[in-house]
Amino acid sequence: MNGFWKDLAFGVRTQLKTPAVTLALIVTLAFGLGANTVAFSLVNSFFLRPLPIAEPERLVRIYSSYAGGMQYFTLSYPDYADIAKLDSVFSGALVDAPVAVSFGFAGSSERLWGERVSGDYFSLLGVKPAYGRFFIPEEDWRAGVASVVVLSHRLWRRSFGGSPGVLRQSVAINGQACKIIGIAPEAFQGVNLGFRPELWLPIIKQGSGLPSAGDRGSRGYFAMGRLQPCVTFAQARAALDLLAQHLQQVYPLTNRGIRFAVLPESEGRVHPMARGRFLGVSGVLMAVAVLVLLLACANIAGILLVRAGSRHKEIGVRLAMGGTRGRIIRQLLTEGATLSLLAGGVGVALAWAVTKALSAIHLPTRFPLFFDLGLDERVLAFSLVVTVLTTILFGLAPALEASRSDVITVLKDGEATRWLRQSRLRKALVAAQVALSTVVLIGGGLFLRSLQNAEHLDVGFDAEGVVATSVDVGLQGYKSAEAKQFWRRLVDLLSTLPGTESVSLASTVPFELNITTTSLAPEGYQPPAERGWPSIEFAIVDSGYFKTMRIPLLQGRDFSERDSESAPPVVVVNDVLARRFWPGISAVGKRLMPRSGGGYEVIGVVKRGKYLTLGEEPKPYIYFPLRQSEAGAMTVLVRGKGDPSTLLREVRNTVRGMDHSVPLFNVTTMASHVGTALAPARAEAVVINIVGLVALVLSGLGLYGTTAHTVSRRTHEMGVRRALGAQDRDVVLLVLGQAAGLVLVGLTGGIALGFTGSRLLRSLLYGIGPTDPLVFGLVPVLLVLVCVVASWAPAYRAVRIDVAAALRYE
């Protein structure tokens, strides 16, 4: 141990002799280590970090699955109740659903997101309250019970200063008094990744703001079950299959074609419909981070190789005095460890700052998204392991090379053989850097081209000139008739604003991450025995919506005042649905039928669009008229001329003038809102292209260092060539040719790797193939240009060699 500390102290002194080089090495390595730490923190947050609950390995997530339709959908409350009765399989089950509420305290109110949960929610999860108590089963889905609420630790600290006396107080939830009974522990932030509830409420029969708890066909609850100690996952799946078949027979109207999908809690933490995308993005980021680290290691190894070569006499003397090769390797590795430890500390600090900034980003969506990317013990352990492996990766080759010194040759100051070995190793490292740079640049080029295509995708509407403000009157207790009257007055007032072209309302707008579905089919539809009714996404819109959003009307007409509550029910559909249900004929005048009877007449067909994501395939969509529907929360859409910020301010003032207590949220322009949908593609392109630029610089520096080192070592040879009549052009071509050979080797390997690896990016790209010829053609050109630039200075120096001095050079 004493020898280790001596080596460490010596290593620190050695690094301090060249502070500028040491600083550059630390920064380079810290960038690579920090990138790996950030990428792993994403993977850890999405897939690895267990929930702060009891025995999470025994928890499973349960979904509804439509035969031939949507997979991994939410459950109805009655279906959950039947699942909870399977006590031979589950020791308990729970449901939860996000809900927006108006939270009032001390004369002020704000719009918060919480969860309605079943009475055994906390007890089944094994979560203990920080103060007070949690819900009891008697408070679950019952009328006439005193309203109670559990606050998150965060809301308790923010609104009540962390006072335990809050348990004796009441707050207003949607205008109704609610007694605070408990405070959740600080570590518990719900069980759904990306959603951080501020409070929890029990599920009640009425006024929950959710699908009816008594309607088996209203599916809007996330469900989890805890397996009995001796029950396997396969047994639970089999039991749920039997239950689904039983419910299909007993309740054919609501459960025909409905099965239950079950996943381990860890696999369902990211919703299965989004898991593939998350895995893809996380995998790409990890791969890029590893490539960056490999590039940094290759660059540092090359520099340390030169540094070790300059110490050949010192190492030869040590060997001559009895030092063993293992002792020399240990010392050089310890010196490298000083770099790694310093770089690791800087990298962790950098990763901490980046993850904090990423966690603080709030996307302008109706549903709040939050990701905790903190550096927990798992991330720090990963960073430590990577730091140790990095020390071995970049330090071992120079240490082994330096320890091969021949004592007699070194003491006689002979270096020819040593230089030849080092030169070959440095060339291999530079070729590897070029190959890795090629892979990263290909990825960056593909994502950049993908972003350009995404920005020009036809989303089905025109966002320019439209401002949007979400308004929720339902939280203030507005009944259906009062809400419709509020909307009519608001539209009339906004229509009189200067510069306004059109005004409309929508329950959800594209890219809002808000999925609402209904089950409708063409008149006369008879579902196959194994399938249920089609599940189709929909929105509730006011007349003028298609004009405001400039969605082309292909057939029929728009909604109008005649589509009142007393008029026959009508809908507008998109062309995908029209062609699927009525191929080759007009859909106008046809009828869509629900499972329970009645029906809707199709009065218009509009052009398809993008509704949830930019990369989604064309899908059917239905629009219902606001006058024939109920909607407490709507997005106000105003198309106008002039400054959007001024128009937004006028819209906000108009709403406040009608009712200052009505909460407004997501006040933005539609152009900015669409930009949010581009955020993943933009982030991918920016991150990977920044990494590509860094890789290009590192490769250029490595190529420059190797070429310059070669020229300095071959000074005598250059002098001989010039003395024998070699021209300037011959010398330049000699130097550039050597550099070009390294680039050619690296390019060959890099293109082969890029061609193979880019196929894994297929699902993340918009409008281009993974082997786009433009990208694969431009990347080699760019690297050749870098080769020329990096080699030009050494080549010029070779041309300027004085022949007489070179012939005397050793």
Written description of the protein model:
The protein is α+β, with helices and mostly antiparallel strands and 810 residues long. It folds into four domains: 1-46 and 288-409, no CATH class; 56-268, no CATH class; 415-457 and 678-810, no CATH class; 474-661, no CATH class. Strand 18 (591-594) and strand 19 (600-606) form a beta hairpin. The longest helix is centred in the middle third of the chain and has 40 residues, at 416-455. Mean pLDDT is 81; it is low at 414-422.
Estimate nothing, just give the exact number of structural domains.
4
Mean pLDDT: 81
Largest sheet: 6 strands, mixed, barrel
Span from first to last CA? 42 Å
Q: Got a strand count?
A: 22
Q: Quick one: overall form?
A: globular
The main sheet orders its strands as 3-4-9-6-8-7
Radius of gyration: 33 Å
**Strand coverage percent:** 15-25%
Helix-residue proportion: 40-55%
| pLDDT < 50 stretches | 414-422
Features:
810 residues, alpha+beta
Task: Set down the secondary structure blueprint.
Elements: H1 2-17, H2 19-48, E1 59-66, E2 75-76, H3 77-84, E3 90-105, E4 108-117, H4 121-125, E5 131-132, E6 148-151, H5 153-160, E7 170-173, E8 176-183, E9 199-202, E10 219-227, H6 233-250, H7 252-255, E11 258-264, H8 265-268, H9 272-309, H10 312-320, H11 325-359, H12 377-403, H13 407-411, H14 416-455, E12 466-472, H15 480-495, E13 500-506, E14 517-522, E15 535-541, H16 545-549, E16 553-556, E17 570-574, H17 575-581, E18 591-594, E19 600-606, E20 621-625, E21 633-640, H18 644-658, E22 664-669, H19 670-677, H20 679-713, H21 715-723, H22 728-757, H23 773-799, H24 803-807
Parallel strand pairs: 4-9, 6-8, 15-20, 17-19
Antiparallel strand pairs: 1-10, 1-11, 2-10, 3-4, 3-7, 3-10, 5-8, 6-9, 7-8, 12-21, 12-22, 13-21, 14-15, 14-18, 16-19, 17-20, 18-19
